[in-house]
Amino acid sequence: MIKHIVLWRLNESAYGNSKQTNAQLLKIKLLAMTGKVDGMLKIEVGIDFSNERDSSDVVLYSEFNSKEALQQYQIHPEHEALKKWLSEVRYERRVVDYEV
Question: At 55, which CATH number?
Fold first, then answer.
């Protein structure tokens, strides 16, 4: 199984929205990928409530049955559109992909 974890730190505003609104929109957009990629087993999205100096704003936790399924997710048209939207919303991205 492949686990794909991404953390984002968001700009204070983008597209005329506050950081909080864009965090909610990001969650909706990510969860909309559910069932659209063969081999995606699980997807969770969390929004940070701690607001600590070192915390990220949004986290994605997802599981795939193979590296190939993760690759298909990466190039899925809806994911490509999301990445373009995110380029204005986020200022930092951290990712970890690992196999268990």
Answer: 3.30.70.100
**Residue the block writes with tokens 């990629």:** 37
Mean pLDDT by groups of 10 residues along the chain of 100 residues: 98 98 98 96 98 96 98 96 97 98
The model's pTM = 0.95
> Phi and psi for 13 in degrees, rounded to 5?
-155, 155
Domain count, the chain: 1
Question: Dihedral of CA 64/69/75/77: which sign?
Answer: negative
Write out the residue range of the structural domain in which residue 21 sits.
2-99
What length is written for the chain?
100
